[in-house]
Amino acid sequence: MKHILLIEDDLRLANLVQNFLQQNSFKVSLLNSGQHAVTEIARLQPDLLLLDINLPDKDGFTICREIKQQFNNPILFLTARDSSIDHVMGLEIGADDYIIKPVDPHVLLARINLILRKVNNKDQLTKNELTFGQLTINKQARTVSLASKPIDLTTHEFELLWLLARCAGEPQSRESIHKSMIGREYDGLDRTVDVRVSRLRKKLNDDSNKPFKLVTVWGKGYMFCPNAWDDL
Question: How many CB atoms lie within 10 A of CB 89?
């Protein structure tokens, strides 16, 4: 469960946002002023900071500047200040997004999920080992285990799995997979990628008729599902 710290002095809005995000599987902590914000951010180290600008005691811009040396997770400004100068300033001092109130809660949720997904994918790109539930993929050793049992993959199958897993939750086009693995542009006819996906599914005990681990996203490509490996 991802942890969000919401710093907002409008108690009604803060409670509404907190309840909505909690209903969508987030843990949400609240602060209603900027007085102890820097200390609490450093202590809690939330996965994402949702920060108003117009706060009593200390404004959001000042808080953002002061925490950058001790907080590396995403910062999203949620504010009524809609001038382009404020928007640009917010992004320039280190915020990952700037949303103007009022905002539809579903839009807010989508922006939060997008930011967290980008962070997760960036982290995955720097790792030598990826773990999703009972699946472990070790790039350095080039090994794969599922429910503690080793899975014997060819070099091409391992490279395909790694390519999809490091971008878990985001569809990868057949064209990009083809170019990455085969080294040339996709001509629209070559079925090499499809064959390798089919073989990989079989070795990972995925349902060939209704795959749920390596799924086909029509019009977009293939996607590794990060939550499909928990209960096998």
Answer: 17
For 36-46, how does the pLDDT look when each residue is reduced to its tens digit (9 = 90+)? 999 999 889 99
Which of 114-118, 138-142, 187-191, 208-212 has the lowest average pLDDT?
Answer: 187-191
Distance (Å, rounded) from C-alpha 111 to C-alpha 44?
22
Percent of the chain with pLDDT over 90: 53
Q: Are 172 and 222 within 8 A, CB to CB?
A: yes
- Find the largest Cα–Cα distance for the chain: 63
Strand, helix or coil for residue 109: helix
Helix axes 155-165, 174-182, angle to 10 degrees: 130
156 in Cβ contact with 181 (< 8 Å): yes
